[in-house]
Write a structure and sequence with these properties.
Two copies of one chain form a homodimer.
Chain A (H helix, E strand, L loop, with lengths): L1 H8 L15 E9 L5 H12 L9 E7 L14 E7 L2 H9 L1 H10 L3 E11 L1
Chain lengths: ~120, ~120
């Protein structure tokens, strides 16, 4: 019965054998600053992130700071700065990684952060 | 000197005393399924998330699954399903939490996940 259910589900748009491999990529990055109380460091990182808008592969860029939404066990707003990007596809994301503007950002700003967590998703 | 730098930075759009308290809210949620290999469970969660588009406070909704981007130390694509929403402001996000469509989603789908991590940001 389980095998049958799996078989039916394999008709799903996202495929049965793991994540989809085509389509729009949503790229989110959370930064924890080395000096979390430094407004100057935070603003330098924000300014650096905003240069990434010039990368042709980046279709949309949002930069954020933690919002003071209700404190709940599932909410982690301990990060300092947030970055959200959309790419047309996996190739766009790969191109971005090697773009000179992105490489300059990493060179100029990576000393600011202590920890970074990236998640990449395909829109379904 | 440090105090002076802090003082100058206080003119920043995001304020000197912590996160901004107005403006667009970006709400991201990462779900780890109880049965991560179940395509049926994943698709039930995806279908449930898509009902949230009907919540008036939700200005934009993207649902995703992990993308097979390059494996790097900073990339965590271990989650099963991703949700991204935009709200006009903090009040919109609070309204959403109590919306009957959202409450029905939690009632119908929360048995599917083992862990959920939420991050909320103000766009700067």
């Amino acid at each position: 019965m389980a095998a049958s259910a799996e078989s039916l589900a394999s008709a799903s748009v996202v495929g049965a054998q793991g994540p989809a491999t085509t389509g729009q990529v949503v790229h989110t990055v959370y930064f924890w600053l080395k000096n979390p109380d430094s407004v100057a460091d935070r603003d330098a990182l924000i300014a650096g992130l905003k240069t990434l808008r010039q990368v042709p592969a980046v279709k949309s860029l949002h930069v954020g700071v933690p919002a003071n939404t209700e404190k709940r066990d599932v909410v982690d707003n301990s990060f300092s700065v947030f970055e959200l990007m959309f790419f047309d596809d996996l190739a766009g994301q790969a191109t971005y990684q090697q773009d000179p503007i992105h490489l300059a950002f990493v060179e100029n700003c990576s000393h600011l952060w202590d920890k970074v967590v990236v998640h990449d998703s395909f829109t379904v």
